[in-house]
């Protein structure tokens, strides 16, 4: 078993508001980026070194002195002017590849819902899609108890690089206690649109979560609604509930290992990050991967996670890393504005998100109803640790106490 755990620890681990952000912004990574940017700028400069020339097909060189004018019309003797925007070809190909990959992810997410629904008699599991104002299609799913009366709702947001389906067991335990659960795969994740694990803006996820929450509340009038968020999903929920309209509609928030504090290893990196995020937003750096940084002490849970095609195991994308830095910086400046009741749970041995930042959240939040549980020696994915039953029971107990109150 020890050998199995050690083997699992060598798997590429990329969960949560990853600690790989520091590696992403390391000196070696920045040097690699600078070389890449220099080459990119050189390629852009090459076409402008000399006089711009274009020539109709089949024309003599002297016929091309005037090129690109609005009134110029090719004659029948000189042939047609051919302009091929070569840069458009790879863009179209890349977009088609992303669309194909999204379709495969969505099909798998739907298949899992349908198969689980056929095999389960205690829960009805369904999926649905909604289109954002940006035109992106977002995959959502729900778990509803069959034999237990629904007395409340939980809207669930997963962490970075994973998806809502990973919380299937947790959702069913909430069902058994009278809570209907809704999950949303945020942009670039699971069955939703977007390049896998690429987040152009976490504000997109915040706004999508607000839209999804409105739909859930409209479908279940009168039922108290709670929000659950893990890691970066917790940061998204925290930013959403700072909106007074959202705050009024939410009865409480549960956060596991929330991404409240993620800081670069040097202040200069915070200055350079937006530049690189603008120039090379989708670029991935192998230096950003950390091996051996486990997110769970359960070897089987690690294997299940990182063999899941819907879990992204590649290098973090530059824009995604920058967006995490940006949302955590925002939260750090606004912790005192939080007034919603909340429960925060964090493992003291978490090396992905900072447990001391969760303590700061608890200390500075203005909420009069707030609870923090720090678990000695536990890692990042609390609901997939060997103590997952204890974690789940503490969450259910907190929910029950708020329902009674």
UniProtKB/TrEMBL annotation:
<feature type="compositionally biased region" description="Basic and acidic residues">
    <location>
        <begin position="63"/>
        <end position="74"/>
    </location>
</feature>
<dbReference type="InterPro" id="IPR029058">
    <property type="entry name" value="AB_hydrolase_fold"/>
</dbReference>
<dbReference type="InterPro" id="IPR022742">
    <property type="entry name" value="Hydrolase_4"/>
</dbReference>
<feature type="transmembrane region" description="Helical">
    <location>
        <begin position="32"/>
        <end position="48"/>
    </location>
</feature>
<keyword id="KW-1133">Transmembrane helix</keyword>
<protein>
    <submittedName>
        <fullName>Monoglyceride lipase</fullName>
    </submittedName>
</protein>
<keyword id="KW-0812">Transmembrane</keyword>
<feature type="domain" description="Serine aminopeptidase S33">
    <location>
        <begin position="149"/>
        <end position="387"/>
    </location>
</feature>
<dbReference type="InterPro" id="IPR051044">
    <property type="entry name" value="MAG_DAG_Lipase"/>
</dbReference>
<keyword id="KW-0472">Membrane</keyword>
<feature type="region of interest" description="Disordered">
    <location>
        <begin position="58"/>
        <end position="78"/>
    </location>
</feature>
<dbReference type="Pfam" id="PF12146">
    <property type="entry name" value="Hydrolase_4"/>
</dbReference>
């Amino acid at each position: 078993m020890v050998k199995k755990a050690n083997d699992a620890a060598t798997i590429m681990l990329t969960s949560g508001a990853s600690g790989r952000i520091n590696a992403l912004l390391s000196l070696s990574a920045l040097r690699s980026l600078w070389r890449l940017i220099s080459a990119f700028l050189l390629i852009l400069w090459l076409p402008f070194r000399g006089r711009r020339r274009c020539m109709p097909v089949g024309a003599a060189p002297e016929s091309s002195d005037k090129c690109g004018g609005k009134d110029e019309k090719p004659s029948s003797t000189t042939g047609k002017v051919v302009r091929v925007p070569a840069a458009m070809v790879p863009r179209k190909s890349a977009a088609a590849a992303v669309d194909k990959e999204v379709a495969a992810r969505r099909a798998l997410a739907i298949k899992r819902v349908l198969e689980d629904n056929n095999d389960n008699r205690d829960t009805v599991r369904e999926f649905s899609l909604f289109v954002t104002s940006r035109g992106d299609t977002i995959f959502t799913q729900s778990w509803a108890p069959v034999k237990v009366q629904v007395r409340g709702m939980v809207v669930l947001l997963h962490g970075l690089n994973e998806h809502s389906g990973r919380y299937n067991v947790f959702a069913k335990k909430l069902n058994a206690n009278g809570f209907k659960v809704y999950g949303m795969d945020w942009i670039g994740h699971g069955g939703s649109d977007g390049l896998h694990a690429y987040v152009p803006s976490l504000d997109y996820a915040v706004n999508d979560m607000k839209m999804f929450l409105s739909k859930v509340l409209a479908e279940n009038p009168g039922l108290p609604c709670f929000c659950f968020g893990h890691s970066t999903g917790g940061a998204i929920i925290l930013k959403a509930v700072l909106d007074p309209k959202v705050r009024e509609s939410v009865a409480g928030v549960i956060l596991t290992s929330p991404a409240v504090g993620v800081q670069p290893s040097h202040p200069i990196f915070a200055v350079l990050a937006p530049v690189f995020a603008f120039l090379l937003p989708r670029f991935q750096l192998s230096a950003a991967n950390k091996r051996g940084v486990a997110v769970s002490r359960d070897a089987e849970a690690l294997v299940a996670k990182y063999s899941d095609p819907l879990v992204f195991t590649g290098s973090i994308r530059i824009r995604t890393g920058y967006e995490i830095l940006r949302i955590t910086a925002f939260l750090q400046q606004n912790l005192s504005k939080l007034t919603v009741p909340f429960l925060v749970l964090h493992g003291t041995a978490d090396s992905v998100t900072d447990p001391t930042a969760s303590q700061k959240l608890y200390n500075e939040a203005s909420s009069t109803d707030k609870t923090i549980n720090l678990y000695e020696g536990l890692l990042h994915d609390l609901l997939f640790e060997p103590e997952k039953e204890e974690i789940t029971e503490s969450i259910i107990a907190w929910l029950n106490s708020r329902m009674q109150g």
